[in-house]
Amino acid sequence: MWDTYRYVIDHHIVPGIGSHQLRTVTADEVDRFLLERARSGYSSSVVRRTRNTLSQVFRWGVRCRVCTWDPASFSEFPPARVFKEATARRRRVPRALDPDEARRLVHALDGHPQRALVLTALCTGLRPGELLALHWEDVDLDAGLLTVRRAWKGRDDHRHIGEPKTATSVRTLNLPPAVLDAVRVLRDDRDDVERSRRRPEPWSELVFTTTAGTPIDPSNYRRLIKELARAAGIGHLAPYDLRHTAASLLSDAGVPNHELADLLGHTTTRMVEVHYRHRLKKTIDVAVAPMQDLVGQSDPDDDDEPDEPSS
Question: Would you give the DSSP letter of residue 170?
Fold first, then answer.
C-alpha cells in the first residue's frame, strides 16, 4: 500500500499541486487539479486513487495541525463525459513471443553472463521483482525446485526486499532441466568469485546480481532484455513480456488456465484469461479435428438402406 501512495504522490500530486501549501488549498483548486488529470487521459480509477491519496494527506495535515480541513473530501469528482471525451494515454501493449521467437532469444543467450536470469524468467513467468529478489536458499538444485518467498518493493531510493505481491504469490515451482543447468553454472561461477574475493554484503545471497555482486537495477534489467531482443532480431521486448510469453507458450502447449494461474501466483484464472494469455497461432484450428469426426463421415442411415434389386 505504501508503494501505491508513493507512486501517486510522486507522479500525480507533487507535479500537479505540490507547490501549494496545505493550509491554502481550496476545494475549487482540487476540482481543477482532478479535472486536469481526467482531461489528460488518466482513467477514472487513477483519478479516484489520486483524490483519495490527497485526502489522506490533508487528514494527516489536520492531525498534525498543519491545516484545518480536508478540501479533497469536498471536491467534485470529474463527470463521466470528461473521461469519455479525453484522449486516452498511450500505453505499451504487452506482447508474447511465439515459439520461433522464443528459440531465437534463447539462442542469443549462448555464452551470455545473464543466461540463467533470462532463461528462468522465460520458463517460469516470475514477476521481475520476484526474479531479482531470489536468494540461494530459495533454490534447491538437487530437487529441481524454486520457491518464491520475497520480492523487490518500492522505487528508486525506497527500493527494498519485502513480501511477494499477494499471499498466493508465495509458491514453489519445479524447474525445467535447461534452467537447472544454467543456474548450476551460475552457482559454480559464484563459488569461484567467493574464493577469489568476498561479495558485498548484504547481497551475498542473491542469486542474480551484477558482475560486482550488487542487486540488478530494474532499468538495467529492461536494458538487458531490450539488447538481447535486438540481438535475436525479434523486435522490442520488455521484462514483463517474458511473463506473458511463459503463460502464452504454456497455454498453447495445452496447459489449463487454472495451472497457469498457480504458476503465475494468481488466485483465479481471470488475469490469465484477460491479460497474460495471448493467441500465438495465426489461425484457429480447434474446430478442424472434432468437427471432421462429427460431420465428415457418411450418413449413418445410408448403411441401413437395403440394396436395390437388380433387374
Answer: -
